[in-house]
Amino acid sequence: MATKAEHAEVIARLSKHLPPPIAPATAQNTAAPAGKKGKKGKAPEAPAPKAGATRDRGAMFDGRDLNKDGKLDKEEFMIRQSDPEQAAKNFVKFDKDLSGDVNREEYVKSGK
């Protein structure tokens, strides 16, 4: 189809919207950097978390405790959860005293 003369104009117009061609693989552009192992070697260690990168569980609790009663009911606990299904399971696990809510101590200790 690309070799037909009637399609040359269409191909020329559309080609400007394509990304530039990828260079063919060579030994130079596929070699692992010096000092690092390839896919079969051990993966490099993840960098250590930066100071302050660890989330303060107490502050997180305070942000979720909307009515400031010192405990999270299930509705407060579920706010801003990225995985609601897992969060519902966590709520049950965090509620150590089976009171139906999660107090600050339960939240801080269970989240670690």
Describe the 3D structure.
- This protein is mainly alpha-helical and 112 residues long.
- The chain has a domain at 57-110: Recoverin, domain 1 (Orthogonal Bundle), CATH 1.10.238.10.
- Helices cover 40% and strands 4% of the residues.
- It has helices at residues 5-15, 27-30, 57-64, 74-77, 84-94, 104-110; strands at 71-72, 102-103.
- A two-stranded antiparallel sheet has the order 1-2.
- The relative contact order is 0.09.
Helix residue percentage: 40-55%
How many distinct helices? 6
Q: What do the pLDDT scores average to?
A: 79
Terminal Cα span: 61 Å
Element order: H for helix, E for strand: HHHEHHEH
CATH architecture of the domain at 57-110: Orthogonal Bundle
The portion of residues forming beta strands comes to under 5%
**Would you count the extended β strands for me?**
2
Q: Label the structural class.
A: mainly alpha
Provide the low-confidence segments as ranges.
none
* CATH topology assignment of the domain at 57-110: Recoverin, domain 1
Major sheet size, sense and barrel closure: 2 strands, antiparallel
Bulk shape: elongated
